[in-house]
Amino acid sequence: MAVLIWLMEDDTNAKKEEEEFNTGPLSVLMMSVKNNTQVLINCRNNKKLLGRVRAFDRHCNMVLENVREMWTEIPKTGKGKKKALPVNKDRFISKMFLRGDSVIIVLRNPK
């Protein structure tokens, strides 16, 4: 009997979590998975990720595909020279796992 109640509670919790994913803040990620659309993610390391979300969880851990990672670097200069201008850099990553604690904000890509 206790196992049956536990299974019913587990099923109820799963439905509740799915409802929260569809209507709450994580709906941005859910829509990206369903529609295969890109999201822009700002990370704590001051880098931006533009890619498609394949999977995610409540902690914002994500599996991303076709990711373009973008950041700026300030080149080192010699003594007595003017400060160098920031340089935009980027790289392509075909598949990656992003740990959720490094996520600051997730934006859907406007069309």
UniProtKB/TrEMBL annotation:
It is found in: Cytoplasm, Cytosol; Nucleus. It comes from the Eukaryota. GO terms for molecular function: RNA binding. Its main location: cytoplasm. One of its GO terms (biological process) is RNA splicing. Residues 26-111 form the Sm domain. Keywords: Cytoplasm, mRNA processing, mRNA splicing, Nucleus, Ribonucleoprotein. GO terms for cellular component: cytosol; small nuclear ribonucleoprotein complex. InterPro entries: LSM_dom_sf (IPR010920), Sm (IPR047575), Sm_D2 (IPR027248), Sm_dom_euk/arc (IPR001163). This is Small nuclear ribonucleoprotein Sm D2.
